[in-house]
Write a structure and sequence with these properties.
25% strand, 19 strands, fumarase, 3 domains, 33% helix, alpha/beta, 505 residues
Length: 505
């Protein structure tokens, strides 16, 4: 008997799933992250994991996004060949309508991050469509749907190589992972695709990330295939690199490594890596013609009870009165709580400001002695001052940094993950400072923002220049005035500790 799938059911199910994954982590991720928290020996990395776990619980309670980057939607459809359809849309159109409804939901508006004309006008589509949709026809009379929302930071760190047949996949992965930096927000998962053609390897890597975290079970039972052997080997060796949570150095860089392979041409060995960040977002549901899918929320008791205390090693900083002499006393790894007014600005705002300065025109804001936060917040709902407002990857601003520091008198920057050599040189030469907020803790960070107003480039939407007033916003000194970077010293120190003190099996 043929199953009839109603258009409205698929649309509603996709919309509900995207809302669901915006504020609920998969339970296996929470459990794996809790295990990582318990064993972490680096206090800075342990605090970063604590912020991610606390943020996750807050999002589950408040039904607001885990990360300000609510992702580009990827949907995998396994369509039974005995299905028929009711409706006037194609399947891809149905999915996009579900995406549109989810991202424009008035009680939990999600940030639209999809830009049309990617090498031209880069105009925001306004509703996060179109999604990336993959179809597969399979035997049966059911519709299986896998929904994921992939943040730009993790997508940006994707790697691909066409290796020679004799080349080592393990060696290549271990070479690539340190080069990925911390912009993908570890600890998370790595999906690895091996074989097929170039595009097939990438697809395998992304599909692998939909699988549950089960590396501990695999360790107990042992590998039964080459793919499982690779998982175990890579899981151990990647964690022994010492990169750690947020790249600060530590015992857990990956919570699991997933490997999928496919037959390939005799002359080639295609290999792809795609990371899943600390804001892991995916869900699976099945439609059988009986109505829309129902996703069961996890119980709040499933989250660990973790609190953060401002210890004696944490100092409060008043951004309205901080001096250059004061920032000279900050050292990499120091924990700060920021108070007062800070500006925001990401790629588009930086490009606009640099162009204005080149043309001899005035900026809309005075940056002298100020701090700028690399963020594109989610729009507020209800009584919020601002929606989830976690940091974006700071290296994208590296090419603007020298101009900004030398031409505006900017004192400091706040972002996610490491800075590259060009930015570090500019920071050292100008006696500035770079601070890091935790990626994957966007809702937690937003609770520190007490007021928000747009000061420049309002037409840029979430990329406009805002002024935030913050209260005890947690950050870590990542690059000091001398150009010393915690993202260089931390992983090196913990790689050495892991090797010499045998901290990991």
């Amino acid at each position: 008997m043929t199953t009839l799938i109603h258009q409205k059911d698929l649309i509603e199910s996709v919309a509900d799933a995207l809302q669901y994954i915006s504020y609920y982590h998969p339970l296996d991720f929470i459990q794996a992250l809790d295990r990582a928290y318990e064993k972490e020996a680096n206090p800075a990395a342990k605090d970063a994991i604590a912020q991610i776990l606390i943020n996750s619980r807050m999002c589950a309670q408040g039904h607001r996004p885990i990360c300000q980057d609510t992702g580009i939607v990827t949907v995998f459809l396994e369509i039974g060949m005995d299905l028929s359809w009711e409706g006037d849309m194609g399947v891809t159109e149905m999915v996009n309508e579900g995406v549109r409804r989810a991202y424009l939901h008035p009680d939990n508006t999600l940030r639209a991050s999809v830009l049309a004309d990617p090498d031209g006008a880069r105009k925001n589509t306004g509703d996060n469509t179109p999604a990336i949709v993959h179809h597969k026809l399979v035997p049966g009379d059911k519709l299986d749907v896998y929904v994921a929302a992939k943040g730009g930071g993790s997508e940006a760190k994707s790697k691909f190589a066409m290796l020679n047949p004799s080349d080592s996949v393990v060696d290549w992965v271990l070479e690539m992972v340190p080069k990925m930096g911390a912009g993908w927000c570890p600890p998370g998962m790595l999906g690895i695709g091996i074989g097929g053609t170039a595009e097939k390897a990438m697809l395998l890597a992304k599909e692998a990330l939909l699988e549950p975290i089960d590396i501990q079970e695999l360790e107990q039972r042992g590998a039964s295939s080459r793919a499982e052997e690779l998982r175990l080997e890579l899981y151990g060796k990647i964690n022994r690199l010492g990169i750690g949570a947020q790249g600060l150095g530590g015992l857990t860089t990956v919570l699991d490594v997933k490997v999928k392979d496919f037959p390939t041409h005799a002359a080639n060995k295609a290999v792809a890596i795609i990371p899943n960040c600390a804001a892991t977002r995916h869900a699976h549901f099945t439609l059988d013609g009986s109505g829309p899918a129902s996703l069961t929320p996890p119980r709040l008791e499933e989250w660990p009870e973790i609190t953060r205390e401002a210890g004696g090693n944490v100092r409060r900083v008043n951004l309205d009165t901080v001096t250059r002499d004061e920032i000279k006393t900050w050292k990499p790894g120091d924990s700060l709580l920021l108070n007062g007014k800070m500006l925001t600005g990401r790629d588009a705002a930086h490009k606009r400001m640099v162009d204005l300065m080149a043309a001899g025109e005035a900026l809309p804001v005075d940056l002298k002695g100020r701090f700028i936060y690399y963020v594109g917040p989610v729009d507020p709902v209800r009584d919020e001052v601002v929606g989830p407002a976690g940091p974006t990857t700071a290296t994208r601003m590296d090419k603007f940094t020298r101009t900004m520091l030398e031409e505006t008198g900017l004192m400091g920057m706040v972002g996610k993950a490491e800075r590259g050599p060009v930015a570090i040189d500019a920071i050292r030469d100008n006696q500035a400072v770079y601070l890091m907020a935790v990626g994957g803790a966007a809702y937690l960070v937003s609770q520190a923002i007490k007021s928000s107003k747009v000061l420049g480039f309002p037409e840029l939407g979430m990329e406009a220049i805002y002024e935030f007033e913050v209260e005890d916003m947690p950050v870590t000194v990542a690059v000091d005035v001398n150009g010393n970077s915690v993202h260089q010293s931390g992983p090196a120190e913990w790689k050495h500790k892991i090797e010499t003190e045998h901290l990991l099996k």
